[in-house]
């Protein structure tokens, strides 16, 4: 009569994983996970897998950065990022990577092929990570609220960016022109405008673009697709920003305000034209001190404009 080995309870786990496998399991069962049934040929792989189930914290730290790993094999693989250089180069944009697998994943961006589809809507994505982030937007739980306008967010990252935009202060400056931006991602996109490189081309005409998002919007001029529909009228738009600006006509929202005369505008370009009448530029904003920036992002969710100005 064969007796199945009893699975130990996690809360009583005092023996090490090696002691557990040596004393409890024999033969083929020794390299089989009792929790999910996965089999292993090498002990170090089995041990790392069991740690992932039992929640033991990684204890092997990289000497070059703060990352930690479950075993030496994973650490040695990671060390190539620091020591082996980035020998795998993208033939489209010349960006280099330490691993061939990472390069292959990166090349999917240039291909434009969207293999990952959301099961809740018709949205498709090139990379699985982008799909994962998108699915979170379907969540009905929006626990992050803005104390200034009442808008709520399901993702803390989007909430933080929204709070920064309320300040009107742009901490990221272009070193080639006078433009400033709220977040680093916007600055990175802007820097492409200073480069002559346009790696994204239209398959139906000879136009080229600096970013994949511009390429996607352009393709809609060929297909006639207008995926962004207004929920207040029948109008549809090719780009999300056009829908966002259009909805402000319905709501009366004017987010771009002149700091000199309090006149407000729906679009940033209208404010720019207005500021020229004052002889000013909207991009010559004061840089927020680091302490105030950390308070805005990491501090309490209820903030006032007095906090941003450094007042009590």
Overview of this protein structure:
Among the domains are: 16-54, no CATH class; 88-136, Double Stranded RNA Binding Domain (2-Layer Sandwich). The strands form 8 sheets. Strands 1-2 form a two-stranded antiparallel sheet. A two-stranded antiparallel ribbon has the order 3-4. Strands 5-6 form a two-stranded antiparallel sheet. It is built from 12 helices and 16 strands. Helices cover 39% and strands 10% of the residues. A hairpin with a 6-residue loop joins strand 3 (88-89) and strand 4 (96-97). With 312 residues, the chain is an alpha+beta fold. Mean pLDDT is 72; it is low at 8-29 and 284-312. Pfam families: zf-C2H2, zf-C2H2_4. Belongs to the krueppel C2H2-type zinc-finger protein family.
State the fourth-level CATH superfamily of the domain at 88-136: Classic Zinc Finger
Strand and helix order: HHEEHEEHEEHEEHEEHEEHEEHEEHHH
Largest sheet entry: 2 strands, antiparallel
Range of strand content: 5-15%
Question: Per CATH, what is the topology of the domain at 88-136?
Answer: Double Stranded RNA Binding Domain
CATH class of the domain at 88-136: Alpha Beta
Structural class: alpha+beta
The N- and C-terminal alpha carbons lie at a distance of: 77 Å
* Second rung of CATH, namely the architecture of the domain at 88-136: 2-Layer Sandwich
Q: What topology, given as strand order, has the largest sheet? A: 1-2
Q: What gyration radius follows from the Cα positions, in whole Å? A: 26 Å
């Amino acid at each position: 009569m064969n007796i199945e080995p009893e699975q130990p309870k996690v809360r009583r786990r005092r023996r090490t994983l090696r002691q557990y496998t040596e004393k409890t399991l024999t033969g083929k069962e020794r390299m089989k996970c009792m929790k999910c049934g996965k089999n292993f040929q090498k002990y170090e792989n089995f041990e790392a897998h069991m740690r992932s189930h039992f929640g033991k914290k990684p204890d092997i730290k990289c000497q070059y950065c703060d990352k930690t790993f479950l075993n030496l094999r994973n650490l040695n693989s990671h060390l190539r990022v620091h020591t082996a250089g980035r020998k795998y180069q993208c033939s489209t944009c010349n960006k280099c990577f330490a691993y061939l697998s990472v390069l292959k994943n990166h090349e999917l961006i240039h291909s434009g092929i969207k293999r990952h589809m959301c099961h809740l809507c018709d949205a498709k994505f090139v990379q699985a990570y982008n799909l994962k982030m998108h699915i979170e937007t379907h969540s009905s739980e929006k626990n992050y609220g803005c104390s200034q306008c009442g808008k709520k967010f399901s993702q803390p990252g989007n909430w933080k960016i929204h709070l920064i935009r309320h300040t009107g202060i742009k901490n990221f400056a272009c070193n080639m022109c006078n433009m400033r931006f709220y977040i680093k991602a916007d600055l990175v996109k802007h820097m492409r405008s200073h480069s002559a490189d346009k790696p994204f081309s239209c398959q139906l005409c000879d136009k080229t673009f600096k970013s994949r998002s511009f390429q996607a919007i352009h393709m809609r001029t060929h297909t006639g697709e207008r995926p962004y529909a207004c929920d207040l009228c029948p109008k549809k738009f090719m780009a999300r920003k056009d829908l966002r600006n259009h909805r402000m006509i319905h709501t009366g929202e004017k987010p771009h305000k002149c700091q000199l005369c309090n006149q407000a505008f729906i679009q940033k370009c209208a404010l720019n034209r207005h500021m020229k009448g004052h002889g000013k530029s909207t991009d010559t904003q004061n840089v927020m001190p680091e302490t105030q920036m950390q308070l805005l992002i990491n501090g309490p969710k209820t903030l006032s404009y007095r906090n941003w100005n450094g007042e009590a």
